[in-house]
Design a protein that fits this description.
Elements: E1 8-14, H1 21-29, E2 36-42, H2 49-59, E3 63-67, H3 73-84, E4 89-92, E5 98-99, H4 103-113, E6 117-128, E7 131-136, H5 142-147, E8 161-163, H6 164-170, H7 181-189, E9 194-206, H8 212-215, H9 217-230, H10 241-253, H11 258-277
Parallel strand pairs: 1-2, 1-4, 2-3, 6-9
Antiparallel strand pairs: 4-8, 5-9, 6-7, 6-8
């Protein structure tokens, strides 16, 4: 008897994540939704990441562990995971984040009841060690998300579920825009599908000095601006005056001291949200 294909494929790229990956894996294995395969890709780690992955794989047959022969980085790892996947939907899982137990169930149910949505995310809360930090809340409906795509990413990729068919339609992640391949993919996806977010915290996002958010912030700003500039005239979106102002201010951040950028970027986002909600 043939084994039934899973409804969901969870894809987790990992690199030197020995401190946190065990907790991240357990948060997926303990989901209320059970019908998934769990593809974990070790991207040539030099610590004990692979050993920890193998320990968990022995305990749960849903885990498919892969050790890359060369370092691929996040975009190509996600692409590799998608190409391996058998599920109807792809769920991203980062090797240092913690998924709430009901995360996959709520994302799956939403997608099943909204077939016109290509990608759905959720709110998340940041944390550092035992200290809780900011809650990032996202707009929910496609109209609002589309109108503000030049100011904010419509969906936080670490929280996302994506229809597998979407990759057949718009292609995989473009590794030419690191580390802004997420926003490039969102722009392409939005030409054919709707965006959505569930207004609940379904993910705990770990902040630490080695995270991509801190180590690649200036590069991320530059790449994001390059992607957004390519879509200003795209008919699927409608850039307004505030979008151009936000673009200019963000451009200036590239040339400011790093610590100032870290502190002020969140403030800039809050100001934009305040202006939108007036």
């Amino acid at each position: 008897m043939d084994k039934k294909e899973p409804l969901v494929s969870v894809v987790m790229p990992a690199y030197n994540a020995e401190k946190f990956i065990g907790e991240a894996i357990e948060s997926i294995l303990n989901q209320t939704f059970k019908d998934f395969e769990f593809i974990i890709l070790d991207d040539c780690s030099t610590d004990k990441t692979w050993e920890i992955i193998q320990e968990h794989a022995k305990k749960d047959e849903r885990i498919i562990s892969v050790k890359n022969e060369k370092n691929l980085n996040i975009a190509l790892n996600r692409n590799k995971g998608v190409e391996m996947s058998k599920g109807r939907y792809i769920v991203w899982a980062d090797a240092d984040d913690i998924s709430k137990p009901e995360r996959i169930e709520k994302l799956f149910n939403y997608m099943e009841s909204h077939p016109d949505v290509g990608i759905c995310g959720s709110n998340f809360q940041s944390f550092y060690g035992s200290k809780l930090s900011d809650v990032r809340d996202f707009l929910e409906d496609d109209k609002s998300l589309r109108e503000n795509i030049f100011k904010f990413s419509p969906v936080a990729q670490p929280t996302a579920i994506i229809g597998k068919e979407c990759f057949d339609k718009v292609g995989l992640y473009n590794a030419s825009y690191p580390p802004a391949e997420d926003i490039d993919f969102s722009f392409r996806l939005g030409e054919y599908y709707k965006f959505a977010n569930i207004p609940e915290i379904l993910l705990m996002y770990r902040e630490h000095p080695d995270s991509a958010t801190h180590t690649r912030l200036r590069k991320q700003i530059s790449s994001t601006l390059n992607v957004r500039a390519r879509y200003f005239k795209n008919k699927s979106y409608n850039a307004g005056m505030l979008d151009y102002v936000a673009f200019g201010v963000t451009w200036l951040f590239q040339f400011l001291p790093f610590e100032f950028v870290i502190r002020s970027f969140k403030l800039f986002r809050r100001i934009l949200i305040f202006l939108l909600r007036r």
